[in-house]
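Weekly sync, protein design subgroup
Attendees: M.S., D.O., the rotation student, P.L. (late)

Item 1: inverse folding check
M.S. brought a backbone from last month's batch and wanted to see whether the design step gives back something sensible before we order anything. D.O. pointed out we never logged the input encoding, so this time it goes straight into the notes. Structure tokens as presented (272 positions):
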């Protein structure tokens, strides 16, 4: 079939491997020091790798080739996890069990707003996603006044999803990095104050996101001046993938950075 896939110019490629970490499908590898599209049917044609290439060696082409094989990609990811001895949970993740949590203390309701409400998109060479809502920005805090109690957000940047974060950016320089499970902020009431304050917060869910965060986190830590790393995970087996990715990234980065892991229970307590 005729479809869009990527093409890599070996003359421009410097073998930096940034495209490999950006390719969630594992379609790209290094052969003789150059990036190469290993299998056409692993390339989804969306081009997450393009904005990460520092030399412009990657481009789109229309080519008569095999269709994108999502099933094969998922099977490859599964085998990779098995080879890395990541424990698999049969019968579904226990953390997905429905339960009721009793609250005895008074709570406040905080209003928020969405960021990606339109259909307009723009191309930004520093980001994996072209959605305007994912454009990198630094937050300027403003405290609301009035009679209502307002708790100020500690979010320092946007986006927050690991998959949308740039590999290198001034916002990481001399930063305390928070790698958090996206459920943690909902489970733990004082998440902003206790964990996000004075940190660059990035979130993800290894249960829902395809692929592994290790490569991208490694590149973020390796190419930026990170002061410390805090990993906040939930007390569910599938959240172990986030802790594992953070630890492996620290090791692979070759840097000695202070780090710690905090575990939150499903009823919102710090247990580790």
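Designed sequence read out in the meeting:
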């Amino acid at each position: 079939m005729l479809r869009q896939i990527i093409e890599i110019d070996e003359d421009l490629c410097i073998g930096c491997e940034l495209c490999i970490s950006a390719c969630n499908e594992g379609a790209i590898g290094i052969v003789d020091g150059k990036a190469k599209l290993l299998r056409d049917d692993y390339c989804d044609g969306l081009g997450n790798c393009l904005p990460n290439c520092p030399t412009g060696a990657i481009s789109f082409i229309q080519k008569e080739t095999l269709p994108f094989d999502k099933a094969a990609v998922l099977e490859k990811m599964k085998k990779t996890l098995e080879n890395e001895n990541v424990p698999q949970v049969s019968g579904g993740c226990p953390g997905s069990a429905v339960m009721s949590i009793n609250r005895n203390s008074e709570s406040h309701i905080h209003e928020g707003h969405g960021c990606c409400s339109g259909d307009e998109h723009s191309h930004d060479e520093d980001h994996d996603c072209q959605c305007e809502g994912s454009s990198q920005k630094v937050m300027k805090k403003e405290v609301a006044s009035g009679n209502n109690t307002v708790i100020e957000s500690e979010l320092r940047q946007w986006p927050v999803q690991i998959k949308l974060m740039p590999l290198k950016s001034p916002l990481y320089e001399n930063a305390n990095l928070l790698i958090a499970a996206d459920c943690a902020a909902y489970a733990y009431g004082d998440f902003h104050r206790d964990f996000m304050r004075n940190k660059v917060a990035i979130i993800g869910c290894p249960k829902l996101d395809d692929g592994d965060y290790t490569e991208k986190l490694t590149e973020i830590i390796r190419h930026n001046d990170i002061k410390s790393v805090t990993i906040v995970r939930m007390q569910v087996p599938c959240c172990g993938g986030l802790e594992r990715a953070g630890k492996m990234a620290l090791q692979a980065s070759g840097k000695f950075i202070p780090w710690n892991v905090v575990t939150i229970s499903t009823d919102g307590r710090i247990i580790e």
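Discussion: The mean pLDDT is 79. The radius of gyration is 20 Å.
Action: P.L. to compare against the previous round before Friday.
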